[in-house]
Amino acid sequence: MFDVVKVLKEKGYKVTPQRIAVFDVLKHTKAHPTVEAIYNKLQPTYPTMSLATVYKSLEMFKSLNLVQELNVGEDKFRYDANVNPHPHITCISCGRVDDVDDEMFFNLTEQVASKTGYKITGQQLYFYGKCPECK
Amino acid sequence: MFDVVKVLKEKGYKVTPQRIAVFDVLKHTKAHPTVEAIYNKLQPTYPTMSLATVYKSLEMFKSLNLVQELNVGEDKFRYDANVNPHPHITCISCGRVDDVDDEMFFNLTEQVASKTGYKITGQQLYFYGKCPECK
DNA sequence: TTGAATGCAAAGACTTTGCACGATT
DNA sequence: AATCGTGCAAAGTCTTTGCATTCAA
């Protein structure tokens, strides 16, 4: 959370309660929330906050590389304050989105690069199935 | 293409020129087209075909497991007549979406399953970078 | 013939934008 | 005090739906 304040100041952007609050939600969850979810979470504490502000804040954080945007195949995006590319797994039953430890993907990128001839700059690995609670 | 006719008949759905045409586009491309792209491709030959019909046909094919829906992180979906789960790579420069040979992902699913406790039913692996032509 | 599919237009979901008011520096 | 950000509402993009007409079987 302090890093956000620092980055915003460095870049000459204003440090507003709304921006802090949006980032704070992402920083303290592993749930990969949607815009709507972030908005709902903030409603009790910031009843005047608008959806537009959530969208605008996320857009800014994205451009500053403070959050990453995910799309696990839904018609909407999810957000993650962990900007490291790392694999995700989605429960097809309850919809939760968990992280997957990425040790086993070590050197996968290099293999893909040499196979395809691409210069690889990012990746999103999504797995789908039933989580331990749902199966 | 013949398989589509067969499946539609088996399931009691009508075999229409529009359905055949939509599937045919997907069957003969490796470009992972969007709905709009499919629609545009068909315009010259089927000037009366509507976007709604493309959407409805794809929805049906999806439910029959004749095509799969992809989302590489855009605000729209892409479609693929190859329904095998297989990795994709997107050029961040020109936007093309290519397939990646999936040999190297052999047994990845099992590893993820044992790490996460999920029962895995599907996967989407997306890599991003610059294609040979763009880099 | 008859029910299902098409195609148009309207509606819906998510996201972006414009602008006046308000807050940060 | 000046400027940037917020929040409302309107607009934009992609997708879905309703319904009368048309078509496959």
Mean pLDDT of chain A: 93
The CATH architecture of the largest domain in chain A is Orthogonal Bundle
Strand order of the largest sheet of chain A: 4-3-5
The largest sheet of chain A, given as strand count, sense and whether it forms a barrel, is: 3 strands, mixed
Strand content of chain A: 15-25%
Q: What low-confidence regions of chain A span 5 or more consecutive residues with pLDDT below 50?
A: none
SS summary, helix count of chain A: 5
Alpha-carbon distance between the termini of chain A? 36 Å
The interface involving the most residues is between: A-B, 39 and 39 residues
**H-E string of chain A:** HHHHEEEEHE
Oligomer: homodimer
Rg of chain A, Cα atoms, Å? 17 Å
Named CATH topology of the largest domain in chain A: Arc Repressor Mutant, subunit A
Count of DSSP E strands of chain A? 5
CATH superfamily membership of the largest domain in chain A: Winged helix-like DNA-binding domain superfamily/Winged helix DNA-binding domain
Large-scale geometry of chain A: globular
Structural class of chain A: alpha+beta
Number of structural units classed as domains of chain A:
2
What helical percentage do the residues of chain A reach?
25-40%
